[in-house]
Specification:
Largest sheet: 6 strands, parallel
Number of strands: 8
Mean pLDDT: 94
CATH architecture of the largest domain: 3-Layer(aba) Sandwich
Shape: globular
Helix content: 40-55%
CATH superfamily of the largest domain: HAD superfamily/HAD-like
Order of helices and strands: EEHHHHEHEHEHEHEHEH
CATH topology of the largest domain: Rossmann fold
Structural class: alpha/beta
Strand content: 5-15%
Length: 217
């Protein structure tokens, strides 16, 4: 049986930069905070939102960070979630893998319902057996917990699967669950961060990603 493939969404399948930046701007402005240069915000694409707003607001009060997250999601739900682009070669990669009966899943820190909407909007949903993501109450924001949940549901053998993502969070979560991990370099993490977090391999194109998958799976 081929190993299941767990794909991160933001920074791996789609580039969410435009919608992310607009939504962060909206949240900061609504809270009376100064806007930040977009170059300063870009590294925050990928990590959990609550931690991001703790840093940007300089405030760890859960009520304050939760308000910022709510405002961010308000703008995201008002169209920002679709202000994204599918990375070059990804659609063809998914088509090729699906045709060869690989089991494809999304495992994202984004809210599960929103991730499904995005995959459907970009006509990618039919490639995936299921889409897993965070719950709005914060459950499964930790991707290691999300992957453990996924493995339990599917009753997978230990260390069976590949996590594919663009950040150290993805690599660490996969490693903690005993999975092979492939880091893609077109997203928002750095090569050094992904390697330090335990990436089995780094790839720089959809074609090299496919080669790695077929070698590992």
């Amino acid at each position: 049986m081929k190993a299941p493939l767990l794909f991160d969404l933001d920074g791996t399948i789609t580039d969410p930069k435009a919608g992310f930046l607009a939504s962060v701007d909206y949240a900061l402005e609504a809270m009376g905070e100064p806007l930040r240069p977009h170059a300063e915000l870009t590294p925050f694409i990928g990590p959990p939102l609550r931690g991001t707003f703790e840093i940007l607001l300089g405030n760890s009060d859960p009520a304050v960070t939760e308000k910022a997250v709510e405002l961010y999601r308000e703008r995201l739900n008002d169209g920002g979630k679709f202000e994204a682009d599918v990375y070059p070669g990804i659609r063809e990669l998914l088509e090729s893998l699906a045709n060869d009966d690989y089991r494809l899943f999304i495992a994202t820190g984004k809210p599960r319902g929103m991730a499904r909407e995005i995959a459907t909007h970009f006509k990618l949903d039919h490639y995936f057996e299921e889409i897993y993501g965070a719950e709005l109450d914060g459950k499964f924001v930790d991707k290691a917990e999300l992957i453990a949940h996924f493995s339990a549901i599917h009753e997978l053998p230990e260390s069976h699967g590949i996590m594919i993502g663009d950040t150290a969070f993805d690599m660490r979560a996969g490693r903690l669950n005993g999975l092979k991990t492939i880091g893609v370099t077109w997203g928002y993490g750095t090569d050094d961060q992904m390697l330090e977090a335990g990436a089995s391999e780094l790839v720089s194109s959809a074609s090299s990603l496919e080669a790695s998958i077929r070698r590992f799976a």
